[in-house]
TrEMBL record:
Keywords: ATP-binding, Coiled coil, DNA replication, DNA-directed DNA polymerase, Metal-binding, Nucleotide-binding, Nucleotidyltransferase, Transferase, Zinc
Coiled coil: 372-399
UniProt gene name: dnaX
Stretches with biased composition (Polar residues): 546-557
Organism in which the protein naturally occurs: Sporosarcina contaminans
InterPro entries: AAA+_ATPase, ClpA/B, DNA_pol3_clamp-load_cplx_C, DNA_pol_III_gamma-3, DNA_pol_III_sug/sutau_N, DNA_Rep/Repair_Clamp_Loader, HLD_clamp_pol_III_gamma_tau, P-loop_NTPase
Name of this chain's protein: DNA-directed DNA polymerase
Keyword Iron in record: no
Length: 580
């Protein structure tokens, strides 16, 4: 018979066998017992926490011949067929390999058919976040109003990738990482059934390496059993998982306590030579110093320890370190762990972290005295300053002079902070502006805004393209603060240019300007180029075409909806606009 991995053989077949997730189990059991099951569920959480297992158990309990019951009987033909995967009314769908809209439409077409041998048709869609947008749209209506005999259970490790319209139509259950104690209890049951002996320390090492995932824990357990044989030992678990033993941690802590850099670096080099992952090493060191801090603060809470056993030698070791030192060690290692993610020289970072930890207290003690001397110098300087000010007051210095000098930097600062209007770029656009160019942008503007990110489209909500040439256009903002934020956001600028290029086929340069700045720049352009006079003259054909195009596209009448509506009703030849 073909050997099967532990996590497949010992997959839970009832809610009682599931480890952890008490809030999920209790809610689903109550719904089953009182016939209040919903038509759509969303199970989200880290890998290996029981999402798919819970979905299968729930499908069995709904279709069990002894229902309503909070547990499936696992004895009736329906329960057995679902367990074996041969029931045609419980459909498991892997969205990772069937993400196209065609596969989803095939499912939707078959939803309306009644179940063949069960009460409910249950669709379990695993890794649902991998579906395409078209597939989500196809699923949307059916998910909201499925037939009375259909139930959808969506499982995902990344719920943030799902559309909100999908999430809002489901009852959502968030699966939490399984605790180390629950993982150890489950492994004990598995080993007892398999008649394999194991050290408690070995199970603790495996549970720590699993990081809250039961499937990971059982897979590592399977590997350790293959390595160790009939007896699981801590040494075998350390070799398979790549973790570090208690003795190495103790020696490293002793080297840090005695400021022995050579011993600490030698231990580190030995661990790396044995194949220990440097990132995992930093993570284990953080957990080790956390355990020491816990032993020092609450020595009775041994069940919360993750890496060490909490015997007398570690209790005395924890008391030898000051709490501030342990906090500093954790902070140094946390920063080092972040920096190592973006470097190819992780070993250098972990070695530097150890040296920082070794020299930490010495630097603090050495710096204490100079800090006190600097403080005394500052106090003496302040005393001299106060005495000088008192002398000036006695000599009759005018009090009003100081505020006047103090206000000057504020005025200059406000000038520096004011937004600079790109008048030169605006003039270049206006010189080449045409009615056709601005019309193209305005026609595509609304549909283009829908393709932008939500934060970008919100920032551009109260904007208007007011003038355009073949290669650039002026974008007017109602508020200066929005104009500043948009012009200083490289992501928005790139997204806007790319969206326009996709809609119009041209890579436009966008000139950002607030409404006041646009009005001033436009008025200056009209006055400088004499466009108002040239519009009334028919002598200059080239200038006349530029003038009329710019005045019609950028003039004040185009910005005023009242004037535009009046022109539609009465005609432009009967409308005269007077600016107050």
């Amino acid at each position: 018979m073909v050997y099967q991995a532990f996590y497949r053989v010992y997959r839970p077949q009832s809610f009682e066998e599931m480890s952890g997730q008490r809030h999920v189990k209790q809610t689903l059991q109550n719904a089953l017992l009182h016939n209040k099951t919903s038509h759509a569920y969303l199970f989200s959480g880290p890998r290996g926490t029981g999402k798919t297992s819970a979905a299968k158990i729930f499908a069995k309990a709904m279709n069990c011949e002894k229902a309503p019951s909070k547990e499936p009987c696992n004895e009736c033909p329906t329960c057995r067929s679902i367990t074996e995967g041969s029931n045609t009314d419980v459909i498991e769908f892997d969205a990772a390999s069937n993400s196209r809209v065609e596969e989803m439409r095939d499912i939707i077409e078959k939803v309306r058919f009644a179940p063949s041998n069960a009460r409910f048709k249950v669709y379990i869609i695993d890794e649902v976040h991998m579906l395409s947008n078209s597939a989500f749209n196809a699923l949307l209506k059916t998910l909201e109003e499925p037939p009375s005999h259909a139930v959808f259970i969506l499982a995902t490790t990344e719920p943030h990738k799902l559309p909100l319209t999908i999430i809002s139509r489901c009852q959502r259950f968030d699966f939490k990482p399984i605790t180390s104690s629950e993982i150890i209890e489950r492994m004990k049951m598995v080993l007892s059934d398999a008649e394999i002996d194991a050290d408690e320390e070995a199970l603790k090492i495996i549970a720590q390496a699993a990081s809250g995932g039961m499937r990971d824990a059982l897979s590592i357990l399977d590997q350790v059993v293959s390595f160790s044989g009939d007896k699981l030992t801590a040494e075998g678990a350390l070799l398979v998982t790549g973790s570090i033993g208690e003795d190495i941690f103790y020696q490293l802590a002793e080297a840090l306590l005695s400021k022995d850099a050579a011993a600490a670096l030698s231990l580190l080099d030995q661990l790396i030579a044995e194949g220990k992952d440097v990132s995992r090493l930093a993570e284990d060191l953080i957990t080790f110093f956390r355990d020491l801090l816990l032993l020092r603060s609450a020595p009775d809470l041994h069940e919360l320890l993750e890496l060490i056993s909490g015997d007398e030698r570690f209790v005395s070791m924890g008391n030898a370190f000051e709490p501030e030192t342990l906090y500093s060690y954790i902070d140094i290692l946390s920063k080092t762990q972040q920096e190592m993610r973006f470097s190819n020289h992780a070993k250098v970072y972990i070695e530097s972290a150890l040296l920082k930890m070794i020299h930490l207290e010495g630097v603090v003690d050495h710096a204490t005295q100079p800090v006190d001397q600097n403080l005394m110098h500052k106090i003496e300087s302040l005393e001299r300053m106060v005495a000088s000010l008192q002398q000036q007051l006695e000599n009759g210095v005018k009090i009003g002079e100081a505020p006047a000098q103090g206000n000057q930097p504020k005025r200059s600062a406000s000038k520096v902070q004011s937004l600079r209007i790109p008048t030169g770029k605006i003039n270049e656009v206006l010189k080449a502006a045409t009615r056709q160019d601005i019309q193209i942008i305005r026609e595509e503007w609304a549909s283009m805004m829908q393709t932008l990110q939500r934060s970008h489209s919100a920032l551009l909500e109260e904007t208007e393209p007011v003038a355009a040439s073949d290669s650039a256009f002026v974008l007017k903002f109602k508020y200066e603060i929005h104009c500043r934020m948009a012009s200083e956001n490289p992501s928005l600028r790139a997204g806007l240019s790319e969206a326009l290029r996709a809609r119009t086929g041209k890579a436009y340069e966008v000139v950002y300007v607030p409404e006041d700045g646009w009005l001033k720049a436009r008025e200056e352009f009209i006055r400088t180029n004499g466009l108002a006079k040239q519009q009334d003259s028919a002598d200059n054909d080239g200038v006349e075409e530029l003038s009329s195009s710019f005045m019609e596209e950028s003039g004040s009448t185009a910005d005023d909806p009242v004037v535009a509506e009046a022109e539609k009703i009465f005609g432009k030849e009967f409308i005269i606009v007077h600016d107050d």
